[in-house]
Structures
1.
Amino acid sequence: MYVFLSEEWMIAAREIRARYEGDLPVITAAVRLNQVITDVPFGEGTVHAHIDTSAGAMVFELGHLDEPDAVIMTDYVTARALLVERDPAVFMQAMMQGRV
């Protein structure tokens, strides 16, 4: 198991996305979000990433997009709950507490 957002995790996530991209339904809502993830327990402590569905699939990648629809700033724990655990309750609680 790799640490969320580590280089190894990103490599594995890219490989999984490539392996299954033809098997997933097309996403019709185009969303381009930049993320600033703080309190990362390694590296510089902050990771800049993005989510982009404009090509019909959900792509999560490092770096920021030009002209995003929105920018989300959240801490590492909340980002992991959203992207890995896919736990909407944790995400909603974080929003209500001002952590998003």
Note: The longest strand covers residues 32-38.
2.
Amino acid sequence: MITIEDFKKIDIAVGKILSAEKIPDTEKLLKLSVDLGEESPRQIISGIALYFPDCSVLVGKKCMFVVNLEPRIIRGLESNGMLFAVSDNDNNFSLLEPDGIIPIGMRAK
């Protein structure tokens, strides 16, 4: 369990996926370029490739991202955030997508 004060430390923002590509020699990893309303897009490495055999379907989607995680090197690539998604034991999967009217860069409150 975490306190509400711990939860308030998590910065969650709407981002638009600009590009998505499979990382060679991996089964699960995609390299995403994400517009979070900042000066330049962020690179985020996500383990969702099994759910998107054609990762081009992700391009243009607005999703929710944790944006204040420390950068992490995954397979030699820097990841600067985390995509919110859920899956279950039956391999059902869903991205957390805001309504279309919510602009890029908006923060969860």
Note: The chain is about 5% helix and 40% strand.
3.
Amino acid sequence: MLLADQIEWMNAGGGLSFAAGRSAESAKIIYDWAETTSYTTPFVTDPAMRSNVVATINFEDGIDALEIAKVLRANG
């Protein structure tokens, strides 16, 4: 079901080049945010080694991971 939804989304947007471009743009947005926010850093420090599909962001120790998860879930 999830794969079918992904394929339908990709095809509706224009195919693989659309999906790859969208992933690259989303990755740029989140990594730029993580690099410029005072309490976050990208987990993978070398930009050439970062994924355009999965972004892992480190938060300062004082930030509550459960609260982050709660806010993310509340915002879809």
Note: The chain has a mean pLDDT of 95.
